[in-house]
TrEMBL record:
Keyword Transmembrane: yes
Domain of life: Bacteria
UniProt entry keywords in alphabetical sequence: Membrane, Transmembrane, Transmembrane helix
Protein's name in the database: DUF485 domain-containing protein
PANTHER family named among the record's database cross-references: INTEGRAL MEMBRANE PROTEIN-RELATED, MEMBRANE PROTEIN
Pfam families, per the entry: DUF485
Regions crossing the membrane: 34-55, 67-88
Amino acid sequence: MGEGRHHDGKEKNKFEKVVESKEFKELMDRKKKFIVPLTIFFLVFYFALPILTSYTKILHQPAIGDITWVWIFALAQFIMTWTLVTIYMKKSAAFDMLAQKIVEEEVSKGGKEQ
């Protein structure tokens, strides 16, 4: 079976060639290495508040005067969300530039195998 052909013998389209390229696979690996840990952190931090307030009394202790740790944790979730969004937006811009470079390289080749 020759390069650029499916198992059924049809030519691969340009999209399939890009997806199978080494550069695209590297980009996807880099994105996963960034997004997966960020998502896990977000979910753990997000679900910690309802779990800790429902099943423990740890956050019900006063932190500053009558303000309990629950309120501080809840405020921290807003700060965490905005921080993660800012980090993601900056990192996604870099990913978009890499993706654009991959597309431009494929277009410059005219979609032909090299």
